[in-house]
Amino acid sequence: MHISEGVLSGQVLSAGAVIAVTGTAMGLKKIDYDQIVHVAILASAFFVASLIHINIGPAGVHLILNGILGLLLGFAAIPAILTALLLQSIFFQYGGLTALGVNVVIMAAPAVLVHYLFLPFLGRSSKLTFWAGFFAGLFSILFSCLLLGFALWFTDKHFFETSLAIIITYIPIMIIEGIITGFCVSFLLKVYPEIIPKKP
Amino acid sequence: MNTTHIKQIICLIITLTFMTPGFAHAHKVIIFAWVEDGMILSQSYFSSKRKAKNCNINVVDGKGRVVHTGKTDDQGNYSFKIPENIDSGLVLNLDAGQGHRAHWKIPENELKVIPSKGDMEKAMAVREKLEQKPSVFKIAAGICIIFLLAIFLKLLKKKRDKNSD
């Protein structure tokens, strides 16, 4: 899911950086004092999740977990994702510093979106909580793929086929992330309901 | 939340932290190229050691002109004759799809001088070292940095709240 350096055009990279900085500022402003520990735990999970690699087709894909971050953190997911991606870029050379802004937008924007779409369904019943988590995980990856496709398409119209291939490659990951997010949210609601934010 | 639940969560976090490096595979793509008997030979693979099959390769000269294009075979290999009238080094760009790209530079002097097998092995070892799988130390360092930043943010917010009171 990480876009490497040298793939996207300067305009796309600049736009991504501006949106990422704005989003991070908004996220930092919205983080509650008591929420900071949750942000750190989930940012760590996001940081490690990208190392769990699944081989599908000619290239590999990895877990992302932006759905669970978005669902549980809302806007606070943006600085969490930025920190994790920055560290991945420095330690593991995933993505790259110039593509950091775009990568943050690709993973954090869907995370914030699923927060507002699915948070109202959490806690109503155990089944509804699981399915809300499932669809939050699934749609966050789907939206991330679409944003990744748009970023490539804006750079070069010939990337359209690549964008379609990315979405198809990530279908299994969408389902896996949906299941993981569903189970995690259900488990956390039972053992640690304080982590679930107040409904918007 | 009782202590049993806290213990369960701590156990889960510890297990996940130390379990994942075993499954970890970097997914960068790598290309090596060298000159032999008037030919440029290349090998491409992902850092999980899977061969980069049927991937596009284009070769550009120092002025950015594409002087050759081709595709890797089932073993991730691709070779071609050194293009004629080359007055600069060459760069082999590998495109493995989905933004997975790699390149290998062949300086102009290497196009004329045949490097020894030892030189190539040394160059490959240096590149492989850069593409190593993530170490547990780096993962732990990353998590520590995240928590240090969180503590810093917490102190900052606390100070700001005190000032506003």
Describe the model.
- The complex is a heterodimer of chains A (about 200) and B (about 160).
- With about 200 residues, chain A is mainly alpha-helical.
- Helices cover about 70% and strands about 5% of the residues of chain A.
- Chain A is globular and about 45 Å long.
- The two termini of chain A are about 30 Å apart.
- Chain B has a domain at about 30-130: Immunoglobulins (Immunoglobulin-like, Sandwich), CATH 2.60.40.10.
- The radius of gyration of chain B is 24 Å and the shape is elongated.
- Chain B is built from three helices and seven strands, in the order αβββββββαα.
- The chains are: A mainly alpha (about 200), B alpha+beta (about 160).
- The interface between A and B is large, with 44 and 47 residues.
What's the topology here?
The complex is a heterodimer of chains A (about 200) and B (about 160).
Chain A lengths: L9 H21 L5 H14 L3 E4 L2 E4 L3 H8 L3 H16 L7 H19 L7 H30 L4 H10 L1 H21 L9
Antiparallel strand pairs in A: 1-2
Chain B lengths: L2 H21 L5 E8 L2 E8 L9 E6 L4 E6 L5 E5 L8 E6 L5 E6 L10 H14 L5 H29 L1
Antiparallel strand pairs in B: 1-2, 2-5, 3-4, 3-6, 6-7
